[in-house]
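Morning - FNR inputs below, output right after.
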Amino acid sequence: MEELNSKSKIRSSRKKDHVNHILKDNFESDNYFKDIYLEHNSLPELDFAEISTKSSFLGKDISFPVMINAMTGGFDKAVEINSNLAKIARELNIPMAVGSQTIAIKDKNYEASFKIVREVLKDGVVISNVNAFVSVDEARRAMEMIQADAIQIHLNPAQEICMPEGDRDFKGVLNNIEDMVKKIDKPVIVKEVGFGISKDVATRLRSIGVKYIDVGGHGGTNFIKVENARNEEFDFYELFEWGIPTALSLIETRAISNDLNIISTGGMRTANEVVKALCVGADIIGISGPVLKKFVDEGYESAEKYLQNIIYKSKVIMLLLGKKNIGELKNVPYRIKGELKELLDGAK
Ligand code: FNR
């Protein structure tokens, strides 16, 4: 029990460290959405008032296909952070995923900052989050804790391997995910945390029955940089550009099949990027770091406004594309240029 307590304390202090580091520095780079070109339409034949951003996710209606993606929980300030983020999600009627619940599965004392999200979001879409090593029972416990609509399983070998206290053995993960997909009666979302899902990984996930993939690509919050800042023994500068850019990961994952539900996360910062992602095949977009930063640095209103701006400007872009709803964005012709084209063309 003592060992469990001390592990929980390490996890809790790490979660606090992550938030603090992410708030201090800019850990971002290029997600390659700049290389997706959408064509302007001078004859949209639309009234701005009729443009709708309504969508649905996990069987519930939402007002805009963007979610506040997994971040935090399990330390002193996390109740305040999560309750405010959940309030934003409720006001905007968008989904929210909680941060890793591993700490609270092991120790009930850490449940409050996760439970508050369901309390505040009421009937909205709330998503659990666990690591890929938890058992089916533990995953079920995480979902019961917040009456989750789905569960995210995060894949983060790049983060763990750069973390002094991180995991070193990554064997058995695919089998464990298969077990969860078979035995959990709600959708299982497999997500990266910022290094992207490759075509091969997406194919392997689909082959074991995974239907929801969050590509969590390179270009936004970068956990190699974050862990580098926490690591006193090694530096990882040479890996700062490691990872699959979000735009590439999204396009290649979508090319595998139309039956996958794809979440595009990783450096999604602007309405332009959100609309581009929807045009090239995302079902929904995930945003994490900036919402947290806005809330902690500038307060609730600023964080909410940040997302409201994205929603408004997405409608502006939809008008300029001549598309009146989210479904129609799937038919927008787009072109790929620059390095993204090179990466796509260069694939063997
Ligand atoms: C994260 N992320 C994350 N992901 C996850 O699956 N479980 C987790 O517990 C966390 N924790 C976490 C903490 C903080 C402070 C941040 C900023 C992020 C990763 C997150 O869900 C997302 O995949 C990446 O941050 C990339 O998106 P952004 O930040 O570039 O929008």
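Note: Residues 25-345 form a domain with the TIM Barrel fold (CATH 3.20.20.70).

O.
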